[in-house]
């Protein structure tokens, strides 16, 4: 199966390992991965801050980029996928009706990585091996906005040796929320502090998630606390093999 890979800004600039492991994982599952070099930022920071007009050029670039084929488009970040899924509405409100129609065709092909693996490829056990105890953090964009709840859990349950632990208020936001963490820094800081306290209570070796931005936020707090918990994106976990 031919698949487009949308790298996202954070994976491209900050977490290249997530991008690399996503591509390797898709290839392991039999996909021919295509990277279209014209792709750029989805515009999420501007959109979330109310600067829709300023985000329009980047949105048009993304639509144009992925119009060149009709293959599925897979991204390792639910927040970016959700932002893109709303392109038709943004274009319509801006009076760009032609672009709204073009966007509908493109956004229908966008998938979060876990959604694609479980629901499009029909796979829950990728043959991964990672012994130890872990906590899974369900990001707000993935669970509340995209409705992807069971897919990451199903994939992690298929990882040999991994023991998933539950924590208090597991569904609570980590406090990142994109520009929220900048505009409401004090509140955001208290939210991630509380999240980390609940994680550390069960003494896991790993904190796993499917949204890079949330993982950066939680990892930052864990490091400030001097914690030894290793933070991993699910793509990195699923590429772990038995040595």
What does this structure look like?
InterPro entries: Cys_rich_dom (IPR004017). It comes from Haemophilus parainfluenzae HK2019. This is Lactate utilization protein A. There is one protein chain. The strands form 2 sheets. Strands 2-1-3-4 form a 4-stranded parallel β-sheet, with helices on both faces. It has 243 residues and is α/β, with parallel strands linked by helices. The radius of gyration is 18 Å and the shape is globular. The mean pLDDT is 92. It contains 14 helices and 8 strands. Helix 6 (87-93) packs antiparallel against helix 7 and helix 8 packs across helix 10 (150-157).
Helical coverage, percent range:
40-55%
Q: Average pLDDT across residues?
A: 92
- Main pleated sheet: 4 strands, parallel
Structural class: alpha/beta
C-alpha Rg (nearest Å)? 18 Å
Reading the helices and strands in chain order gives EHHEHHEHHHEHEHHEHHEHEH
Q: Beta-strand level of the residues, as a percent range?
A: 5-15%
Bulk shape:
globular
Helical stretch count? 14
In short:
The chain has 243 residues and is α/β, with parallel strands linked by helices. It is built from 14 helices and 8 strands.
Annotation keywords:
243 residues; alpha/beta; four-stranded parallel sheet; 14 helices; 8 strands
Task: Describe the SSE topology.
Elements: E1 2-5, H1 9-13, H2 16-28, E2 32-34, H3 44-48, H4 52-66, E3 73-75, H5 78-85, H6 87-93, H7 97-107, E4 110-112, H8 113-120, E5 129-137, H9 140-145, H10 150-157, E6 160-165, H11 180-183, H12 185-201, E7 206-209, H13 212-224, E8 230-233, H14 234-238
Parallel strand pairs: 1-2, 1-3, 3-4, 5-6, 5-7, 7-8
Helix pairs in contact: 6-7, 8-10, 12-13
Protein name: Lactate utilization protein A
InterPro entries: Cys_rich_dom
Organism: Haemophilus parainfluenzae HK2019
